């Protein structure tokens, strides 16, 4: 069981390393717990103070889902990619290693696949 947990951690760290680089951040920041979440919040356009929402039971789950959606939008994807993000980090790997570009926190141009290819 510990190996499975370790495998998930490795997948998430590697995926976020690539995502951080695409968003103009240093990839090594994905290695530092809590700080990596702070960087994800910055990538999606939120203040670091939103980290406090992760301390509130039940709210933290809803907020994590919303932040995952915002990460997908920032790279030109939608709800489908958000769902994939929670399935063994597949969505994060696609975002990190795929051809998507960081479009900014608002995800300008996220409505079409053609926008991702440009």
3D architecture notes:
With 118 residues, the chain is mostly helical. It has one domain (8-117). It has six helices and no strands. The protein has helices at residues 2-22, 35-43, 59-74, 79-85, 90-97, 113-117. Helix 1 (2-22) packs parallel to helix 5 (90-97), helix 3 (59-74) packs across helix 4 (79-85) and helix 4 (79-85) crosses helix 5. The longest helix is centred in the N-terminal third of the chain and has 21 residues, at 2-22. It starts with a helix and ends with a helix. The relative contact order is 0.15.
List the main descriptive attributes of the protein structure presented here.
118 residues; globular; mainly alpha; 6 helices
- C-alpha termini separation: 42 Å
* Structural class label: mainly alpha
Proportion of strand residues = under 5%
Number of strands: 0
Give the overall average pLDDT. 90
Order of helices and strands: HHHHHH
What's the story with the biggest beta sheet? none
Number of domains: 1
Gross morphology: globular
List the total number of helices: 6
| Unreliable sequence segments | none
Amount of helix:
55-70%
Radius of gyration: 14 Å
Write the layout of secondary structure elements.
Layout: H1 2-22, H2 35-43, H3 59-74, H4 79-85, H5 90-97, H6 113-117
Helix pairs in contact: 1-5, 3-4, 4-5
In short:
This protein is mainly α. The protein has helices spanning 2-22, 35-43, 59-74, 79-85, 90-97, 113-117.
